[in-house]
Amino acid sequence: MIIDRAEVIVTSPDRNFVTLKLTTEEGLSGLGDATLNGRELAVVSYLRDHVVPILVGRDGSCIEDTWQFLYRGAYWRRGPITMAAIAAVDMALWDIKGKAAGMPVYQLLGGASRRGLLAYGHASGKSQEELFDSIRAHLEKGYHAIRVQTGVPGLKAIYGIASNATNVVGQRYDHEPAQRGAYPREEDWDTRAYLRHLPGVFEAVRNEFGPELPLLHDGHHRMTPIQAAKLGKALEPYDLFWLEDCTPAENQEALRLVRQHTTIPLAIGEIFNTVWDYQQIIREQLIDYVRSAVTHTGGISHLKKVLEFAAQYQIKSGMHGPTDISPVGMAAAMHLGLAIHNFGIQEYMQHSENAHRVFQQSFTWRDGMLHPGDKPGLGVELDRDEAGKYPYQRAYLPYNRLADGTIHDW
Ligand code: EZ4
Ligand code: CO
Questions:
Q1: What's the rounded mean pLDDT across residues 274-292?
Q2: Mind listing the pLDDT tens digit for each residue in 301-323?
Q3: Which of 9, 65, 305, 370 could covalently link to 19 via disulfide, CB atoms 3.0 to 4.6 Å apart?
Q4: Burial class (CB within 10 angstroms; exposed 0-12, middle 13-18, buried 19+) of 74
Q5: Which residue, by CA, sits nearest to atom 7 of ligand 1?
Q6: Please, which pLDDT band fits residue 179 given cuts at 50, 70 and 90?
Q7: Is the pLDDT of residue 368 over 70?
Q8: Under a CB-based contact definition with an 8 Å cutoff, are residues 81 and 49 in contact?
Q9: Beta carbon of 270 within 6 Å of any ligand 1 atom
Q10: Residue 398 reports pLDDT greater than 60
Q11: Measuring CA to CA, how many Å separate 243 from each of 64, 214, 234?
Q12: Is the minimum distance from the CB of 40 to ligand 1 under 6 angstroms?
């Protein structure tokens, strides 16, 4: 299983994706996702300039050894660029191993622990009416769990809220939250206005849609610990599935304070890269769900270790699944989520039709549940001709300013 070729493919079907394709001397090939939203080309260079030259000629059957070789061998550890690059290699090698064995990757990870993966979608609206329409559209589309993001009176633009008045599935904010263009878009923010507004929105949603529907919310790193504690308490009557990224994720201690005040389940980790980022918050049981993506956390091999650590504390998976995770990264998440015992929920925003033409996939989506399918490997093929139609386009995530001009977390 000598790796004979390693290619980095950049394509932009409605948004940018970076894919590593490894091919063995026997002609087996595997795909890995290395997409880092808004900083894509840094990972391309890391792979092309520093990883590809030392991968070719290695035995591709040694997945763990290759992971350690790239992680420890670099000396410079962790960080989103390194870990996305290693993730892509890891995914591609699992894909190849599955094809060699004639088995889907979840079988190699121990087999299915459940029939399918409960997935949540993103509903949003500037007004209550738009929000309700968006929730109804998601329910009709088959979602059984829904993230609720809302406009705040007085704020013009908020990340995560569809700008289109008829926000239904299909007309979305998320193809390009990065906003193609030469410069990032500026948005505005006011935490006190948000804290005043949000509990009433969840009350209205519960009254309209009943007690059972799992509802989630993303605070997007915008609150201080005491603000997050206040919001958690205020939302308790509406029985949220989770509150995500309530405080900036770098400060793990902040969650101790939040935990002292509220029983709202907490999810964190979409910007984490290694098990070391989770060390304190898992051991001290400061979170309930691990938000890491396979793509940004060193691949299947490493995220599995994080989730096994989490399992000792009854902490579950809630893997990141926005559209900036490519279909390859989503497939890896589905195989891992199906196999582990402590699966919680999978984020699932549908990719565009152009993206589906570039990446042909074998997953299924039925009754609110995802399943990775039973094709050998990850089950995703990349059409090079289609990919070639969409060259890279510069794109950025937006940023926030307060009313007085101060830059704020977003
Ligand atoms: O901001 O994927 O929970 N989902 C999110 C996403 C992230 C983007 C960053 O690339 O917070 O929308
Ligand atoms: Co998030």
A1: 98
A2: 999 999 999 999 999 999 999 99
A3: 9
A4: middle
A5: 322
A6: confident
A7: yes
A8: no
A9: yes
A10: yes
A11: 34, 12, 12
A12: no
Question: Which domains, ranges and CATH numbers included, belong to the chain?
Answer: 3-103 (3.30.390.10), 117-376 (3.20.20.120)
Q: Which residue has the tokens 């009313």?
A: 403
- Is 288's C-beta closer than 6 angstroms to any atom of ligand 1? no
Catalytic residue among 220, 296, 320, 335: 220
Whether residue 167 has pLDDT greater than 90: no
Please indicate whether residue 159 is annotated as part of the active site. yes
CA end-to-end span of the chain = 44
Question: Which residue, chain included where needed, has tokens 């919680």?
Answer: 344
Instruction: Tell me whether strands 399-401 and 407-408 are parallel, antiparallel or unpaired.
Output: antiparallel
Which residue do the tokens 């290395």 mark?
34
Name every residue whose Cβ is closer than 8 Å to that of residue 373 and which is 6 or more positions away in sequence. 104, 361, 362, 363, 364, 379
What is the rounded (10 degree) CA torsion for 11, 17, 22, 23?
Answer: -40
Q: Report pLDDT for 159.
A: 76
To the query of whether residue 261 is one of the catalytic residues in this protein, the response is no
CB 16 within 8 A of CB 393: yes
Q: What is the pLDDT of residue 176?
A: 55
Task: Please check whether residue 95 is in contact with residue 334, taking contact to mean a CB–CB distance below 8 angstroms.
Answer: no
Q: How far is CA 9 from CA 45, 323, 403, in A?
A: 11, 17, 41
Distance separating alpha carbons of residues 81 and 41, to the nearest angstrom:
10
Which atom of ligand 1 is nearest the CA belonging to 178? Answer: 10
Q: Is 324 in the pocket of ligand 1 (CB under 6 A)?
A: yes
Condensed to tens digits (0 to 9), the pLDDT of residues 232-273 reads 999 999 999 999 999 998 899 999 999 999 999 999 999 999
Whole-number pLDDT of residue 170: 42
pLDDT at residue 177, rounded to an integer: 59
